[in-house]
Design brief:
It contains eight helices and eleven strands. By secondary structure, the protein is an alpha/beta fold. The protein folds into two domains: about 120 residues, Rossmann fold; about 100 residues, Winged helix-like DNA-binding domain superfamily/Winged helix DNA-binding domain (Arc Repressor Mutant, subunit A, Orthogonal Bundle). The protein is elongated.
Length: about 220
């Protein structure tokens, strides 16, 4: 799961991002409204933590823009304002939750978890495809045919999670890099191929019949 934090106070943004990464979320940060809107419009995020008082473009304008463009990511508004009118305006524009500064980081994380475990974004502890099961909590991949298991390192885990959530669909390299590495990450051209090679070997080791296939000029596809 990937989260965007749009917060102009960099210290607060860094604290939120650090805590979310410890919870095994992928996190990107934006420090002004213009950059936040640009990142949000990529539609690669499952949840956006969005401050209202931002330079360049305020949070409510960002929220309005992404909802008008059918971006369905959950949105938690984050602001120093506590008046009921401001909260109602946020909810009317399409916010899913609202946290007022100052806040306890544990409360914010709890609200994130609640949002990502509800509706279409519900997080499952176990993901399944064909003979494979992936335990989200332990990063353990198991083949149901052989009962063999193997632990998956962090980046390979993110790749496998993305493929299982988009099983039997062709995913472009650009989509994978944006979702797994992040839109601002510098990467070498062979990074993805190397990680896919590691992942294929682990799938084979446990005796699964699942493969991640390269589709010429289009991307990759997980299939039996």
């Amino acid at each position: 799961m990937r989260i965007l934090v749009v917060e102009d106070e960099e210290t607060i943004a860094d604290v939120i991002a650090t805590k979310l990464r410890k919870e095994k979320y992928e996190v990107d940060t934006s420090f002004d409204g213009e950059d936040g809107l640009y990142n949000a419009m990529t539609n690669i995020y499952d949840l956006i933590i969005l401050d209202i008082m931002l330079p360049k473009i305020n949070g409510l304008e960002i929220l309005k823009e992404i909802r008008e463009n059918d971006i369905s990511a959950k949105v938690i508004m984050l602001t120093a304002k506590s008046e009921l009118e401001d909260k109602l305006k946020g909810f009317d524009t399409g916010a899913d939750d609202y946290v007022t500064k100052p806040f306890h980081i544990e409360e914010l994380i709890a609200r994130v978890n609640v949002q990502l475990r509800s509706g279409n974004n519900k997080v499952k502890d176990i993901l399944e495809y064909s003979d494979l099961t992936l335990n989200i909590r332990t990063s353990t991949l198991t083949c149901k045919l052989t009962n063999e298991s193997i632990n998956i390192p962090y980046r390979e885990f993110l790749l496998l999670e993305y493929f299982i959530n988009n099983k039997e669909q062709i995913i472009s390299k650009e989509q994978i890099y944006d979702k797994v590495w992040g839109i601002d990450t510098d990467y070498e051209s062979n990074n993805l191929e190397a990680y896919l090679s590691f992942l294929r070997k682990k799938i084979k080791i446990i005796g699964s019949k699942v493969n991640i296939k390269a589709v010429r000029n289009l991307g990759y596809k997980m299939e039996e």
